[in-house]
Amino acid sequence: MSQYTLNINGGTQTLNAGPETPLLWILRDSLMLVGSKFGCGIGQCGACTVHLDGMPTRSCITPVSEVAGRQVTTIEGLSENGDHPLQRAWQELDVPQCGYCQAGQIMSAAALLKKSPHPSDSEIDAALDGNLCRCGTYLRIRAGIHRAAE
Ligand code: FES
């Protein structure tokens, strides 16, 4: 076990963990930030997506030892009151079905909008390619991103 000080959602958290402990475990089990979801655990589904220094990152395969000193943003830290344009668009358009993957979808979409404020369909499809939705809400996700970009 080692001690790590993490920058998460604008605050700092100090905790003890093994160096290989996945960031997702820290977020969910130690810090009770449960918006990021465990889907596959092998970096394939995107349900655990957070931002690491602004880049969409799979927290299930990111060891805590790689996170110290960097900025982590989770869905809980994306906006003050859940009022990020994407979160508003998601509500307006009823984007989620079961909702399990949606925090990861929104985090990938938020990173895309920072890079490309008015993305095309193909840019959206490419940026969210690794975020799987078993309910098949892809068309509503795309519409939600366009709404947020208005
Ligand atoms: Fe991390 Fe699936 S749980 S990519």
Kindly describe this structure.
It comes from Methylomonas rapida. InterPro entries: 2Fe-2S-bd, 2Fe-2S-bd_dom_sf, 2Fe-2S_ferredoxin-like_sf, 2Fe-2S_ferredoxin-type, 2Fe2S_fd_BS, Beta-grasp_dom_sf, Diverse_Oxidoreductases. Keywords: 2Fe-2S, Iron, Iron-sulfur, Metal-binding, Oxidoreductase. The chain is globular and about 45 Å long. The chain has 5 helices and 5 strands. With 150 residues, it is α+β, with helices and mostly antiparallel strands. Helices cover 32% and strands 17% of the residues. The termini are far apart. Strands 2-1-5-3-4 form a 5-stranded mixed sheet, with helices on both faces. The chain has helices at residues 23-30, 85-92, 102-115, 121-127, 138-148, and strands at 2-8, 11-17, 49-52, 55-58, 71-73. The structure holds FE2/S2 (inorganic) cluster (FES). FE2/S2 (inorganic) cluster is lined by residues 38-41, 43-48, 58, 60. FE2/S2 (inorganic) cluster binds next to loops.
